[in-house]
Amino acid sequence: MAGQRHTDGRVARGQRTRDAIVEAHAALLREGVLKPTGKVVAERAGVSLRTLWLNYKDTETLLAATTAYWLEADAALRVDVDATLSLEARIEQYLDMRVRRLEHLAPAARSAALGEPFSVALQDSRRQHVERVQHDLEAVFAPGSRRPAICAPSSPQRCSSRRAGPPGRHCAMTSVSTWKPRGPRCVSLCCACCGADRHRDCGQHLR
Fold first, then answer.
1. Which pTM does this prediction carry?
2. What angle do CA 187, 188, 189 make, to 5 degrees?
């Protein structure tokens, strides 16, 4: 029994250490340190560099843990939108939710944009976020309603989603890396994800 308690305590300490490392990494991203070194992360977490790499064997493993942290935090911000509401009401509630989630994810996305071409963990994280957006859109704008296009900007450079596929296809998530609050929102999912100020800045809108 004593041996079991000792083992359980060691496992718990190890998990606390891993959590502290991931939280330190996430905190640095929030502060604008987009590519923190292992040494910087370890110092923020209050552990040695050796301890960091004993728990996360390489950068890719650390990135996988940190993206899981952001995915979990993003899921906590999701709210259900009643699909029986009017289209206008659903759009408004969906946009309110997307704003909160995009603001939360922006620091991580800015960092991910630098490493995504070289990291399977970051590529997988983007895929999961895009799938969440698609799922939410389908849930909110159910069959039988006029479903909005995710985005098809007239100027492809307005939408950073071209890295993940055809221009505009996944704009509702992937443009988070450059998203920032703008002026009055137009009643369009496209504008919400591109950050456009006016209807003319987006190519396809609700009809």
1. 0.67
2. 135
